[in-house]
Specification:
By secondary structure, the protein is of the alpha/beta class. 33% of the residues lie in helices and 20% in strands. It is built from 8 helices and 10 strands. The strands form 2 sheets. The chain has a 5-stranded parallel β-sheet with strand order 3-2-4-1-5, sandwiched between helices. Helix 6 packs across helix 7 and helix 7 packs antiparallel against helix 8. The longest helix has 12 residues. The termini are far apart.
Length: 238
């Protein structure tokens, strides 16, 4: 009976390269091919642990032809590992889009892949590890037994709706933020929830890691006055 390949979803460090599990390293060493957002970023990790494997880029802008190539490898029984630039694939990156495609036998695109047309034949295996979401939640100092994750705010259209949703949420909201829009978006959140309290994680696990807590006006003043709007941010608003 025909057996399809296997896809591993592998969590990798968000900064400190020591934050990788033994199982993740073994999976990467045993994979036939590693799918990654940016081959240059992935190579830094792989070089650190002396892993030499073929790399294939897969990201938000990948065309259907790239997905077809991935399917071809699975059809040939290959073992693939998917990594993102940092953290757990499928969390605010295209990892889940790939999984959904591979598991959806009703998509018209699947007419070209008859042997993989049954989603049950495809094994997708999580290799858990680092996530900025759980990292900041673990040091939040507030009740995080229930929380909402909103991903990245929209760049333009939908920004107000996004932050209105953050302000109206029943539970703490975790979201990612880029340094380019950090202050502007905090000001927008303050508009909808002036009494918001925040836990900010900046450059988590990296050399200049910082966790800042306070109400939204205090946090805004701190970052405006200290010129520290650099690096990647993860925010808890409650």
């Amino acid at each position: 009976m025909y057996q399809s390949g296997k896809l591993y979803i592998v969590a990798t460090p968000i900064g400190n390269l020591e934050d990788i599990t033994l199982r993740a390293l073994r999976t990467l060493k045993e994979a036939d091919l590693i799918l990654c957002e940016d081959t240059r970023v992935a190579k830094k990790l792989l070089d650190r642990y002396k892993i030499q494997k073929p790399l294939l880029s897969y990201h938000h802008h990948s065309k259907l032809s790239r997905v077809e190539k991935i399917v071809e490898h699975l059809e040939n029984g290959k073992v693939l590992a998917l990594v993102s630039d940092a953290g757990t694939p499928g969390i605010s990156d295209p990892g889940n889009e790939l999984s959904a495609f591979l598991l959806n036998s009703k998509t018209k695109s699947w007419e070209r892949f008859p042997r993989l047309s049954l989603g049950k034949e495809i094994e997708i295996v999580p290799i858990p590890g680092v996530s900025a979401v759980t990292a900041i939640a673990s040091v939040a100092g507030i009740n995080m037994s229930k929380f909402c994750f909103f991903g990245f705010p929209p760049h333009k259209k939908g920004r107000e709706t996004f932050f209105r949703g953050v302000a109206e949420a029943k539970y703490p909201v975790v979201y990612f933020e880029s340094p380019h829009r950090f202050l502007k978006n905090l000001e927008l959140l303050e508009k909808f929830k002036p009494d918001a309290k925040l836990v900010i994680g900046r450059e988590l696990t990296k050399m200049f890691e910082e966790v800042k807590r306070g109400n939204i006006s205090e946090v805004l003043e701190y970052y405006k006055n200290n010129n520290k709007v650099k690096g990647e941010f993860v925010v808890i608003a409650h």
